Amino acid sequence: MSRLGIVALLTAMLAAPAVRAQQPRPWHQLSPDEQRRAWENYRRYQQLPENKQRSLEERYQRFQAMPPQDRDRLRQNYETYRGFDPGQRQEFGQKYRRWKSGQH
Amino acid sequence: MMRCRRATRWMVTALDGELPARRRRALDGHVARCPACRHEMATTAAVLQGVGGLATSSEVPGRLEQATFRRVRLLAAAEAERAATRAWWMRLRLPVLGFATAVVAIVAVGLMRSGDRPLAPRPGDGGRRVVAQAPTKDKPPLVASRERRDPKATATVPAEPPPQLAAAPELFMDLPLLRNMEKLEHFEAIRTTTLDDGGEQSNG
C-alpha cells in the first residue's frame, strides 16, 4: 500500500467519529437518560402552539446544519446559561432585551 | 263449681266485655258466693278504669326534649368520630406499609445504581438529579426525576417512542437549547451588553 493510501486510511479513521457525530442518532442509540429527557421534552413540545412547534423545528434544522464547532459552542453557552443563578438569569434576560432592541 | 284461680284469670276479660256469656254467668255466680273474688273483681275493675283514663301521649317539656336531643347528637357524633378514626387507620395501614416498602426499594435501587455508574450532573443541577431506571426489553424503563421540571412532564418513557419523537429524538433532547437558541448564538454579545441608562451595547 502506498504512503498516500495509508494517510487516506488514517484520515478516514480519524474523521469517522466526527462524521458520525454530525448525524442524528436514532432513538435506540440514546442513553436512558437521554431518552428520558427527549420524552419529557416531547411531551412539553406537544403542548406548545403549532407556530411555536414549527419555529422549533426550523431552529433544529438550522442547528443540525451548523458546523460541529458552532454546535459545540452553543452547547457550551447553554451549559453556562443553565448554571446561572436566578439573579444572573434575570440580569441576562434584561441584557438580552436591551441587546435585542438594539438589533432592530 | 268454679275455683277462685280460674275466676281471677277470667276477670280482666269479663271486665273488657269479651268473656263469652256462659263463662260470664259462671264467673258472676262464683263472685256472688266468694267475698275474696268479689273484692278482687272490684279492685281489678277500679284499676282498669284508672288505666283507661290515662292519656296515651303527653307533652314533653321543651327543655327536656332539647337536652335529650343534644345528648343523642353528641353521642352520635362521638360514635361517628370513633368509627371514622378506625376506618382512616384501617384504610391507611396497608397503603402506608406499601409506600414505605416502595421508598426503601427505590432508595436501595438508586444506591446500587449510583455505585454502578456516575450520574454526571450538569452545571446548575447542584446534585439534585435523582434517576431510578430499570429498563428491560419488555417493559419500558420507569423514570423518576426531580429536576426543575413540572411534575406533569415526568412519566414513564415508552420503549417504542411516538413516530415524531423517533424521527428526530435529538430535536427533543435539545429542546431547551433550541428554545434559547438566539440567546445562545449571541451569548457573549448579550453578556457584555451594558444595562446603564445610556443603553450602550457592545459589539460582540
Protein model, in words:
The complex is a heterodimer of chains A (104) and B (204). Chain A is built from five helices and no strands. Residues 16-21 of chain A have low confidence and may be disordered. Chain A is 81% helix and 0% strand. Chain A is mainly alpha-helical. Chain A has a domain at 27-83. Chain B is an all-alpha fold and 204 residues long. Chain B has four domains: 4-51, no CATH class; 75-117; 119-160, no CATH class; 161-196, no CATH class. In chain B, helix 1 (4-15) packs across helix 2 (21-33) and helix 2 (21-33) packs across helix 3. The longest helix of chain B has 55 residues, at 62-116. At the A-B interface, helix 2, helix 3, helix 4 and helix 5 of A face helix 5, helix 6, helix 7, helix 8 and helix 9 of B.
The average pLDDT of chain A is 83
**Overall pLDDT level of chain B:** 73
Stretches of chain A where pLDDT is under 50 for at least 5 consecutive residues are: 16-21
User: How much of the residues of chain B is beta strand, in percent?
Assistant: under 5%
Greatest interface (CB-CB under 8 A), with counts per chain: A-B, 45 and 49 residues
Query: Using DSSP, what is the number of strands of chain A?
Result: 0
The total number of structural domains of chain B is: 4
Q: Which quaternary structure do these chains form?
A: heterodimer
Give the biggest beta sheet of chain B.
Answer: none
Task: Round the Cα radius of gyration of chain A to an integer and report it.
Answer: 20 Å
Q: What order do the helices and strands of chain B follow?
A: HHHHHHHHH
Report the total helices of chain A: 5
What topology emerges from the helices and strands here?
The complex is a heterodimer of chains A (about 100) and B (about 200).
Chain A: H1 3-22, H2 32-46, H3 50-65, H4 68-82, H5 86-103
Chain B: H1 4-15, H2 21-33, H3 35-53, H4 62-116, H5 163-167, H6 169-173, H7 175-179, H8 181-185, H9 187-191
